[in-house]
């Protein structure tokens, strides 16, 4: 297993790094609130082919590997890009053979995954659901894709994400059954795994950039006639983050490689591990970054609060992380009492 990006992958990552630096300054993130969606940025990403990267070439996509996609999402996370890339890329793989596959690949239609099975046909708090045209959901024993108009309105939430409840039995715009029975459950589990993997990569980028912001601030802010970064206690709190942040990036890369090349069971577990580790590290990194800013860290004028809120809000869409840890432990060691 070689997780070092190839020269082609480095070139693609560099191109998206430059794109987000140019087209997604922090002012664009602020302007997109409270919905958390920038249509112009999405259209520019579509012009670069990003929305279709996960789809096979036969469906008009880029045929990218999951490792390729983690590099893109790392850069999106650094920029806090207000576009639903993680959800769209996860859901789009299931839409290649639907009537909307080509439009999803082009980015003219946005796809979103419902991360919980529906209740009486209602998918709750779908990530990207407020701006999505196609929602993929598990409805009883069917995995379905449903076409509908986006609500363009989201409930207030910590991360200013375009969440929305979507009713998926309204088939006025079209409804396609992707799988039924055990196959539906299996493919739905794969959809959730993809979202976890892509969110982990996004959180790794977020954490990396939050640390950079914190370090820059400690070099500017002075106390007792010297920058606060000169004090050992401040240095230690930030220096301790370097290893974990690099670790979650590598864990996401390993999970992506395994999903592309390895054992499906290992891929499932590694995606869960990457997601949970990235959630913890992003929370810790942004907490310490806010802490070194002092009182300024919790004011809206300073950018670090944007990272702090998203580090908590993005992962919570899946539910309580403690429950996710329990599911992972059951997967690794069996349910409590089985040993």
Description:
With 339 residues, the protein is an alpha+beta fold. The protein has a domain of 150 residues: Butyryl-CoA Dehydrogenase, subunit A, domain 3 (Up-down Bundle), CATH 1.20.140. Helix content is 54%, strand content 10%. The chain has 12 helices and 8 strands. It has a 4-stranded mixed sheet. Helix 4 packs antiparallel against helix 9. The mean pLDDT is 94.
Show the helix and strand layout.
Blueprint lengths: L6 H17 L2 H7 L6 H9 L18 H14 L5 H8 L8 H6 L4 E3 L8 E5 L7 E6 L2 E6 L16 E4 L7 E6 H40 L1 E2 L2 E2 L4 H8 L2 H20 L2 H29 L11 H13 L4 H13 L6
Parallel strand pairs: 1-3
Antiparallel strand pairs: 2-5, 3-4, 4-6, 7-8
Helix pairs in contact: 1-4, 4-7, 4-9, 5-7, 7-9, 7-10, 7-11, 9-10, 10-11, 10-12
